[in-house]
Design goal:
The protein has helices spanning about 10-20, 50-70, 75-95, 100-130, and strands spanning about 35-40, 45-50. Strand 1 (about 35-40) and strand 2 form a beta hairpin. The chain is built from 4 helices and 2 strands. The chain has a two-stranded antiparallel sheet with strand order 1-2. The protein starts with 8 loop residues before the first helix and ends with a helix. By secondary structure, it is mainly alpha-helical.
Length: about 130
């Protein structure tokens, strides 16, 4: 049952926890620097909280794509729940002031691509099953 839960709910929840001030105060908690490393080139690589949440979203997106390649009955529920997660992103983006941010928008686009890729992979796998049978 837990395999059908869309993992992109994690960055959605993390973002909303950030809006509540869990990760620090200020106008833009996503701009707060987590760490920086001086590179051999003399440049400085720095990671912000927004960068980290996007990285988490991309890693979970990869897992979701791998999950969508499975052909079983629970995959339909997984796609349906992923669609609900995208709709939650979209509604929050349109209605919540704190969600009008590039980090949230990028997470929403990741959720949209997850929905589109999941259905595309499932349809492709279904046509293979029909052709083989």
């Amino acid at each position: 049952m837990f395999g059908a839960i869309p993992l992109l709910i994690v960055p959605f929840v993390l973002y909303n926890l950030g809006l509540l001030g869990i990760f620090g105060g200020g106008d833009d908690p996503w701009a707060s620097q987590i760490f920086s490393i001086r590179m051999m080139s003399g440049g400085v690589f720095s990671m912000t909280l927004g960068d980290l949440i996007l990285l988490i979203g991309l890693l979970l997106f990869f897992v979701e794509i791998v999950k969508s390649t499975r052909t079983r009955n629970a995959s339909i529920m997984d796609h349906l729940l992923s669609t609900f997660v995208f709709v939650a992103f979209l509604v929050e983006f349109l209605l919540v002031k704190g969600a009008a941010h590039s980090v949230f928008f990028t997470l929403m686009v990741i959720a949209l691509v997850d929905v589109l890729a999941g259905f595309s992979v499932s349809m492709r796998a279904a046509t293979r099953d029909i052709n083989m049978g």
